[in-house]
Amino acid sequence: MVEVLLLVGLFVAVFVGFNIGGSSTGVAFGPAVGSNTISKVTAAALMTVFALLGGWTVGREVIDTLGSDIVTTTFTLEISIGVLFFIGLALFLSNVAGVPASTSMTAVGAMAGLGLARGTLNWAEMGQIVTWWLVSPVLAFWVSAVIGRYYYPRLVEWFAVTQTEGSLLVLDRSGALPRPVLGPNTTQRELVGTLSVVGIGCYMAFSAGASNVANAVAPLVGSESIGMNPAILLGGGAIGLGAFTIARRTMDTVGNDLTDLPLLAALVVATVSSTIVTGLSALGVPASFVIIATMSIVGLGWGRATRTVTIADAREGDSPAVSVGALAAEADEAPTVGGDGGTPDAADAPPIGSEDRESIPDAEDLFEPATTARVIFLQNVVPGIATVASFLLFRFVPL
């Protein structure tokens, strides 16, 4: 009987990891896929490798938190299966809708449902996690706002990517050994920009693995049904399976349907968000990449828009109405996530307070309102489903 339950537990853990891969791959590589920098298959392969690396290195701390710190309940195999089932079910619903959900909030919600039902919730640990959930989006906002206000125009000049026809690299067979060289139309700037897009996607995959591998396997590790290292391999492999299959829909949503965010802005958001998530994972805090990234986008747009006024003007109430469309002001021709474009001409960035508000497009130029509303709604509903379902199970079913 124990062997059968263990097999069921492993299957449910794979199911959870499968859905995490479907959700997280879109967030990590949606910008790269949407801008036609890499294919979906390449994105899935990179997601598999770097998510496993993140889980193997930083993710151990998060596994300990989810597996033993949030609730004081002694995990049995049956309890582990119940928790994992509701995590997987809630994430599956979000993937069916093609929307990346917060896997960490979903996992913590399922754990909290168990703790509330049994009266074993560790309120101190839960309070610490919720505190970081509140602080981290604010931190992401202000870091991105500073970048948007003071550094974004210069970054556009340095890193805007030109996308040309033909292969990025080709093999030069003129020598004794073939060697890769730039393609016929490829510039060095395009090569560096493309490698930056892919590299930051890999960094996001690493941070996703650091935070989310635990969501698939922590209950099994907490019940001592499986060791730490085999659990990480199992979770990483399951994430890879989801990346190669159902992640296609979330990559389309993030890369094509949700936003025409300039590619440079997407890279800034990815770097800020991944750094915060990786840092929290090292502290053992399950972090919501989705919410942190959203606030990073808002902060970057706010910072860019406020370049039109000085701090003195803002104190006097002469502050512009802020739109996320401000991100495109310096780079009307720059590639977008899900759009086209080229590299803007380099020019000295106008000083703060001298820029024209009319050059800043509206938010609708970057966001599809209906898709955005659907994404925000489901990102809040999915963790709630896991929490309520877990509470009802452990409150009324003796396990």
From TrEMBL:
CC terms in the record's Gene Ontology section: membrane
Membrane topology classification: Multi-pass membrane protein
Compartments it resides in: Membrane
A single GO BP: phosphate ion transmembrane transport
Gene Ontology molecular function: any one: phosphate transmembrane transporter activity
Region of interest called Disordered, as start-end residue ranges on this chain: 333-359
Main location: membrane
Keywords: Membrane, Phosphate transport, Transmembrane, Transmembrane helix, Transport
Alphabetical list of InterPro entries matching this protein: Phos_transporter (IPR001204)
TM segment ranges: 38-58, 70-93, 129-152, 226-246, 258-277, 283-302, 375-397
Function text: Potential transporter for phosphate.
Family classification: Belongs to the inorganic phosphate transporter (PiT) (TC 2.A.20) family.
Protein name per its UniProtKB record: Phosphate transporter
Organism of provenance: Halosimplex litoreum
